Amino acid sequence: MTQSAIAKNAQSALDAANQAVTDAKAALDALNAKAADPNTLPEDVPTQADLDAAQAALDDATQDAAAAQTAATAAAANVPSIDAALAQMANKPVDPEVTDWANGVLADKIDQVAAKLAPATP
Q1: 13 and 118 in contact (C-beta within 8 Å)?
Q2: Is 72 exposed, middle or buried (CB count within 10 Å of its CB: 0-12, 13-18, 19+)?
Q3: Are 63 and 17 in contact (CB under 8 A)?
Q4: What is the model's pTM?
Q5: What is the pLDDT of residues 5-20, one digit of tens each?
Q6: 114 to each of 67, 69, 108, 119, 121, how far by Cα in Å?
Q7: Based on the number of CB atoms within 10 Å of its own CB, is 33 exposed (0-12), middle (13-18) or buried (19 or more)?
């Protein structure tokens, strides 16, 4: 259960990192569009420093997303198969109904453990 909770938190971190990439890309695209628009007032044209900062933010977000992807992949690889665990406990293969039942029972418990393991957000 703990490994599943860790994987769930890693996936949540990956989702947040991917959203940060999307947001940073949108901000950069907006600045580039404003810079290219001939109707933009001179005082509203982004400076090269603005464009560079937006690009740096996108680069940082992309690196963070890559690290989060690596962590999520590693965490998911450490989650044992529910079928294997059930078969080991039962000392025989289990049918899909048993697996579905176990997943339903464990889902709330995994969420509770994930919440306890999640880092505090500022």
Answers
A1: no
A2: buried
A3: no
A4: 0.76
A5: 888 899 999 999 999 9
A6: 20, 18, 10, 10, 14
A7: exposed
